[in-house]
Amino acid sequence: xxxxxxxxxxxIGAPMARQLARRFDLAVWNRTASRAVAFASTHHxxxxxxxxxxxxxxRDFVVTCLPTSNEVEQILEGxxxxxxxxxxxxxxxxxxxGDPDSxxxxxxxxxxAGVGFIDAPVSGGVSGAEQxxxxxxxxxxxxxVEKARPVLEAFGRKIVHCGxxxxxxAIKAVNNAMLAVHIxxxxxxxASLKKSGVDPKIxxxxxxxxxxxxxxxxxxxxxxxxxxxxxRTFKLALLDKDLRIAADFARAQKVSSPLLQLTSELFRAAxxxxxxxxxxxxAAKLVEQWAGTEIR
Length: 296
Ligand code: NDP
Fold this sequence. Notes:
296 residues, alpha/beta, Rossmann fold, N-(1-d-carboxylethyl)-l-norvaline Dehydrogenase, domain 2, 2 domains, six-stranded parallel beta sheet, three-stranded mixed beta sheet, 9 strands, globular, binds NADPH dihydro-nicotinamide-adenine-dinucleotide phosphate
């Protein structure tokens, strides 16, 4: 049986690991060990590893899903780090929404140890992970992406080889920057309509049959803003991180990108105002505060 390790049982990591536990012999590691202990005790065939090195030992595939590439780099080195446990020929699949430069650095470090690497960030949210229907955007060699495919199929429905290492990260950052633009634009537009006396529910009904519609207008605002539910599924802090990656990426490509730079600043302000635990859609609350109204 293929032996897989999963590191990072967070909001999206845990349901992804759950899908893997159904198909593979799975070792799980989490910084807060109690989460890995609870996971192993409730998932048949899953075992808890005490360190990243223990998780990687004897595994064909090691999947990481941490907040940023920095944390992935941090768990690589040292006597308990991934590199101390990884066997030659293993493949690291990094599902973190990382940054392309760091991923290239990590890939290089692993190559020196005879270990392969692909960046494989995901989209589809916690519910997509629970249903095993995520989109997975892969950067790396075609051979490594094909090798990873059976593992990725446990939680992914659309698995795309995007280019060399870093290409998956770059697309993910641009995707999420577009998500952020949609959230902010919807919040400003709907707050204006609300203040003019238009019911935001009616406005969204119209927009969702018109050319301004997006996942934000079709799903996020009706389900999370109008209801005031604001469930915490994807941290605003993580979207802020994605925007910074996208804004830096555009600059590095010498693309004039005033909208990405501004949106990055706005989400940075929202993160500062709303805190590290706020959900990404809660950014709309800052727009509401500035407008002196609620979109409901
Ligand atoms: P969470 O904040 O819910 O979980 C983060 C995970 O990383 C936890 O397991 C946490 O461990 C661990 N961690 C944090 N800091 C460290 C560290 N210094 N060393 C080791 N482990 C650490 O994040 P998500 O699961 O939401 O996101 C993970 C990645 O997936 C991010 O890159 C995010 O952008 C991306 N993503 C998230 C989506 C979502 O809907 N949530 C959707 C698509 C992509 P501990 O339990 O100890 O805190």
